[in-house]
Amino acid sequence: MAKLKTEGIEETIKMLEKIEANTDEILTAAIEAGAKIVVKEMSSQISSLKTSSEDEDNEKRYPTQRELKSIQSGLGAAPVQDNGTKMDTNIGFAGYDGKQTKRYPRGHSNKMLAAKFDKGSSFIKAQPFFNKAKRNAEAKATAAMQKVLTDEINRLTK
User: Fold this and answer.
1) Which of 13, 16, 47, 107 is spaced 20 to 30 Å from 134 by Cα?
2) Hey, is 133 helix, strand or coil?
3) Phi and psi dihedrals of 122, rounded to 5?
4) Distance between CA atoms of residues 33 and 22, nearest Å
5) Is 93 helix (H, G, I), strand (E, B) or coil?
6) CA distances in angstroms from 120 to 2, 128, 149, 156, listed in the order given
């Protein structure tokens, strides 16, 4: 009868258990690294948008510097969430621009302003930047996430 002798299996099992015990922390770090790249690219795209001055009275205008600064300051990534089947984060705009009106006593929502600048409206010229930022950041974010995963697994397996 043939004999099967396995060597090193205990070490491999311990290594895999160590990785499993730290999976949430590893994935959170990787997702945060990717989100950081996307936020940076989104901010870069916002900075490159054309602007109009506050006193221009054109039929259609570009965003003002104040509006761009407002949406840039509100840009960020939410904390990583684990819903049991997947882990993810959201990147978006928080806060208000501070220009109070009767209709908007807290000011215009940065999320609303960003959508108007991206898609345009009856009084703002469209300057698509969401999809451009996504395309530009996708490969870099994927590489950054892969690097974090590899580094963390290598750290745990040594």
Assistant:
1) 107
2) helix
3) -70, -15
4) 17
5) strand
6) 74, 8, 39, 49
80 and 31 Cβ atoms separated by less than 8 Å = yes
Residue 16 clears pLDDT 90, i.e. is over it: no
pTM value? Answer: 0.83
Closest by Cα among 28, 53, 17, 43 to 148: 28
- The rounded mean pLDDT for the chain is 88
User: Residue 96: helix, strand or coil by DSSP?
Assistant: strand
Q: Is the pLDDT of residue 58 over 70?
A: no
**Which amino acid is residue 47, in one-letter code?**
S
> What are the residue ranges of helices labelled H in the chain?
9-21, 23-47, 65-74, 110-119, 130-157
Stretch 10-21: mean pLDDT, rounded?
82
| Predicted confidence (pLDDT) at residue 13 exceeds the cutoff of 80 | yes
